[in-house]
Amino acid sequence: MAKAIKQIKKSVPNPVEEQAQAISDILESLTENREAILSTLGILKHLHEMGVLNALHGLLEQRTEVGAIAVQQMNQPAMHNTIKNGINAFKFLGSVNPEQLQSILQGLSHGLERSTEVIQKGEFQSLWKLGTSMRNPDVRASLSTMVEFLHGMGEVFNRDQQELH
């Protein structure tokens, strides 16, 4: 038959041994993550050289004052409109077909390049040449696109106006 346990020996860790174990664990973790730690130290070095860490340190020291200023700025009516406009811009970008947007932006970019060249050269077209350029398929395609854009925009404006009345 087993004997009853009458005494429990509780082991109290020695603070020196506990500290040595903690240092050992840290060193083991450092060696396992050597590349990540060296990369992080490199990033911190560059941030320090740029003065970002000093700015961040000052920001943290003055966090209550900075927070109060931020809240004051956020409570201005213009900021409310800015936030609403930002949200609407993201909604708009989410609703646009990416291929259509890419096509339009490429057309804008190329059109800006050509117009910049004309301005730099100072080669402005005569009224006669402007009129005959309407026969150019590229000009007609662009004008048709702009007219259809204006039709669509006008439809929405008229619909919104009718809903208001």
Structural features, described:
This protein is mostly helical. The protein is built from eight helices and no strands. The protein has helices at about 15-30, 35-50, 50-60, 65-75, 75-95, 100-120, 125-130, 135-165. The chain is elongated and about 115 Å long. The chain starts with 14 loop residues before the first helix and ends with a helix. The mean pLDDT is about 90.
Query: How far from one another are the termini?
Result: 97 Å
| Unreliable residue stretches | none
Please compute the radius of gyration using only Cα atoms.
Answer: 34 Å
Reading the helices and strands in chain order gives HHHHHHHH
Q: Name the average pLDDT.
A: 89
**Major pleated sheet:** none
Into which percentage range does the β-strand content fall? under 5%
Structural class: mainly alpha
Helix-residue proportion: over 70%
Described by the principal axes of the CA atoms, the overall outline is elongated
Count of individual beta strands? 0
Report the total helices. 8
Write the layout of secondary structure elements.
Layout: H1 15-32, H2 34-50, H3 52-61, H4 63-74, H5 77-95, H6 98-121, H7 127-132, H8 137-164
Short description:
The chain is mainly α and about 160 residues long.
Pick out its properties.
165 residues; mainly alpha; 8 helices
